[in-house]
Amino acid sequence: MLPAAQPMCMLIADISGYTRYLAGVELEHSLDVLTDLLDVIVSGLKPNFRLSRVEGDAAFMFAPGETLDGSMLMDTIEGCYFGFRRRRRDIHQSTSCPCKACLRIPDLDLKFIVHHGPTLIQEVAGRQELLGVDAIVVHRLGKNRVVEELGVAAYSLFSGACMDATGLDPRELGMIQHSEVYDEIGEVPVWVHDIERRWQEEEARVRIRVAPGETILDLSAETTVPPQTAWEFLTKPGQRMSWQPWVTSVEIKGATGGRRGLGSANHCMHGEDAVVEEILDWRPYDYVTDMTILETPDGPVKVPHTIEFEPIAGGTRIHFRFGPPDTAREAAAMQVIGPAYGAALEDAIPDLIAQMEAEFEATDAGRGPEPELPSTG
Length: 377
Description:
With 377 residues, the protein is an alpha+beta fold. It contains 11 helices and 15 strands. It has helices spanning 18-22, 27-45, 70-94, 100-103, 133-140, 146-150, 160-166, 195-204, 227-235, 240-243, 328-365, and strands at 6-16, 50-55, 58-64, 109-124, 127-131, 155-159, 176-182, 186-194, 217-223, 249-253, 265-270, 273-283, 287-296, 299-312, 315-322. Strands 1, 2, 3, 4, 5, 6, 7 and 8 form an 8-stranded mixed β-sheet that branches. Strands 9-15-14-13-12-11-10 form a 7-stranded antiparallel β-sheet, with helices on one face. A hairpin with a 2-residue loop joins β2 (50-55) and β3. The longest helix is centred in the C-terminal third of the chain and has 38 residues, at 328-365. The chain is globular, with a radius of gyration of 23 Å. The two termini are 39 Å apart.
């Protein structure tokens, strides 16, 4: 008896140009390149997505859920693409091999197809297979007219059903409205996000980060969860009150299209008082930097603040760093405020780590078996 259908976000990460790339290149090296890039892609999408199977030069992945955290979905996809581009660049620059397979690595690119709908999960030969009409739709969407009609080569294509589940406004996010028509399915409305443009913006953007040795307060803690999970827990507004008892509510303002990130601000309420965190730099899953603004009787005190996620063996080391304010008045205020806030934060961190690990363990316990990535030996 089949299990009941459940709402599912399905994602295909497809290395584009691989068929053309194979023509006339050395097979052994081309398979090495494919395996390396697939590993980068799958690692970049986990643990938010689970691997169903590898389909040649593509990875088919899924994440159960009736609604989607749109910001996390966008961060996950863009972070995966940025990792792919960096790895592609590193392989090309570091190799001394003159073969065509290595020389033509820059010809490869990546696209994402994302859909949401009711799906059955069935275990087949040690892996989880997705069954149902919507599992067919996401694969049909891989054959589209985006490049021909829109001229966008590297993209994320979101079905209308997927965007509805995220609660994001695709127009405000600069996505392109489009549609595809398929036999037996009909018209499927979609939104196209240009991730090549996002890569160029990412590379050009100035980094803003409170570094070690530049701090007035520096706390660290280790956890067994991966950086992606730690990032989600610490940047999702609803989590704040669970481990910072002095925060009574958090409101996000200035989030373009409903997406958290650069330019948005967290308004953290402490009863009737608010601490504002203006996001200055947003680098999933490396670090986030904000300007924390504290209201005092003598005026606002502005303190740069970075949370950095350092991957370590078996988990993540999280760094909370506060930099010095710009003025003497603010520096004097922080001599009073800083120690009390640091002590409160230090007391709250064990609860943060415990909650994060318990939530991850509960989620991970429900995961089924995943297939191994192909190996060239």
